[in-house]
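Narrative of activities, Objective 1.

The group set out to show that a structural description can be obtained from nothing but a protein's sequence at a throughput compatible with the screening campaign. Below is one input-output pair from the validation batch, recorded exactly as produced.
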Amino acid sequence: MHILAPRAPLVSFKSAYGNYIDGQFVEPLGGEYFMNTSPVDGE
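Output recorded for this entry:
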């Protein structure tokens, strides 16, 4: 059995995302974001 290496490109993440409204990310009106801490690793 042969196992091929995945060829998917590396994923890059932005430091902040807006709300996804009507097919696009929209920044908050007040310009303020909040931290969303992961329950898995606390980051």
